[in-house]
TrEMBL record:
<dbReference type="InterPro" id="IPR039420">
    <property type="entry name" value="WalR-like"/>
</dbReference>
<dbReference type="InterPro" id="IPR036388">
    <property type="entry name" value="WH-like_DNA-bd_sf"/>
</dbReference>
<dbReference type="InterPro" id="IPR016032">
    <property type="entry name" value="Sig_transdc_resp-reg_C-effctor"/>
</dbReference>
<protein>
    <submittedName>
        <fullName>Winged helix family transcriptional regulator</fullName>
    </submittedName>
</protein>
<keyword id="KW-0805">Transcription regulation</keyword>
<dbReference type="GO" id="GO:0005829">
    <property type="term" value="C:cytosol"/>
</dbReference>
<feature type="DNA-binding region" description="OmpR/PhoB-type">
    <location>
        <begin position="17"/>
        <end position="113"/>
    </location>
</feature>
<keyword id="KW-0238">DNA-binding</keyword>
<keyword id="KW-0597">Phosphoprotein</keyword>
<dbReference type="GO" id="GO:0006355">
    <property type="term" value="P:regulation of DNA-templated transcription"/>
</dbReference>
<keyword id="KW-0902">Two-component regulatory system</keyword>
<keyword id="KW-0804">Transcription</keyword>
<dbReference type="GO" id="GO:0000976">
    <property type="term" value="F:transcription cis-regulatory region binding"/>
</dbReference>
<dbReference type="InterPro" id="IPR001867">
    <property type="entry name" value="OmpR/PhoB-type_DNA-bd"/>
</dbReference>
<dbReference type="GO" id="GO:0000156">
    <property type="term" value="F:phosphorelay response regulator activity"/>
</dbReference>
<dbReference type="GO" id="GO:0032993">
    <property type="term" value="C:protein-DNA complex"/>
</dbReference>
<feature type="domain" description="OmpR/PhoB-type">
    <location>
        <begin position="17"/>
        <end position="113"/>
    </location>
</feature>
Length: 117
């Protein structure tokens, strides 16, 4: 990022398979779109798609904010947890009840299938 010494982001594509599915949600990271179990198509920003793909490739595993910053978003050094928090909030809003992104206090986030009702 220009103007922030020591804070750079690499321009790398979202790594992983052509699509990934968890709990009935299928994400196409290349096109930055997901389809929910209800058949609703949801569009994401490039960074939202990167975070979601990273979490979906590690369902149930706690991913730290630093890990998400460096591995999913491509920053060379962590730039602050609020950046990740903003993307997580947007994902939660867009995905609704399709999947849950749980906060693990003091650690990071974990993607879980939504509870069956």
């Amino acid at each position: 990022m220009a103007g922030h010494p020591g804070r750079t982001r690499t321009d790398r594509a979202v790594a992983g398979p052509a699509s990934v599915s968890v709990a009935g949600v299928t994400l196409d990271p290349t096109n930055r779109r997901a389809v929910t179990p209800a058949g609703v198509e949801v569009a994401f920003t490039p960074l939202e798609a990167a975070v979601l793909a990273y979490l979906m490739n590690r369902p149930g595993r706690v991913c730290s904010r630093d890990e998400l910053m460096c591995e999913a978003l491509g920053y060379s050094v962590p730039v602050g947890s609020r950046t990740v928090d903003v993307h997580i909030a947007a994902l939660r809003s867009k995905l609704g009840d399709a999947v849950r992104i749980r906060s693990v206090r003091g650690v990071g986030y974990r993607l879980e299938p939504a509870a069956k009702t």
